[in-house]
Amino acid sequence: MAIRRIYETPDPMLRQTSRPVETFDVSLKTLVADMFETMYAAPGIGLAAVQVGEPIRLLVIDLQEPESEAKDAPIVRDPRVFINPEILTTSDNEIPYTEGCLSVPEQYAEVMRPDRIRAKWQDVDGTMHEEDIDGLLAVCLQHEMDHLNGVLFIDHLSRLRRDMVLKKLAKWRKENGLVAA
Q1: Which residue numbers are catalytic?
Q2: Between the N and C ends of the chain, which has fewer C-beta atoms within 10 Å?
């Protein structure tokens, strides 16, 4: 396993439309393992393959819930892999959720998304799955699937709000001696 570079806006890699995964082999499993290691190190709860320079329809999610309310409670991992995911249906009800993104570091904004979806996808062995999904997992899956189509969460914002987020990002990078990746 290896920690990979996470591409950040405005890198053109993030605007690519990812191609379907056709081969389910050991190299795919290695990429999935690398993506989890990269996501956990960042830290984050979701990561699309295009964010690590692999424009294929693959994403990983782990909502990483604490075992209990105790301050030092161990984290319970629930790693999920979605390959060639599709949203089949969405609810009419949308909810606001404050989203962030490893490709738009340290920036957050409220995005409206359907609160329930029905999705289908394949796992690392190519087995097909279909499920009704709601809550944070539904929001995260929609966010990560946007990456597969070259869309960032800031694209869901008004132009004014998006420009404000990008200015804050530039200021944060300057204050931290960072340049856009």
Answers
A1: 144
A2: N
Quick one: 120 exposed, middle or buried, by C-beta within 10 A (0-12, 13-18, 19+)? middle
Are the C-beta atoms of 128 and 120 separated by less than 8 Å?
A: yes
Q: Are 148 and 18 in contact (CB under 8 A)?
A: yes
> How confident is the model over 54-74, as pLDDT tens digits?
999 999 999 976 555 666 767
Given this structure, which CATH class describes domain 12-175?
Answer: alpha beta
Distances in whole angstroms, Cα of residue 29 to Cα of each of 1, 56, 77, 178: 10, 13, 18, 32
Q: List pLDDT tens digits, range 107-165.
A: 999 999 999 999 999 999 999 999 999 999 999 999 999 999 999 999 999 999 999 99
Locate 134 and state its tokens: 């709601």
Q: Give CA–CA dist 17/55, Å, rounded.
A: 7
CA atoms within a 13 Å half-sphere pointing along the CA-CB vector of 77: 10
Q: Is the dihedral of CA 74, 124, 155, 157 positive or negative?
A: negative
Indicate the pTM of the whole model: 0.91
How far apart are the C-alpha atoms of 85 and 147, rounded to whole Å? 12
What local confidence, expressed as pLDDT, does residue 66 receive?
Answer: 57
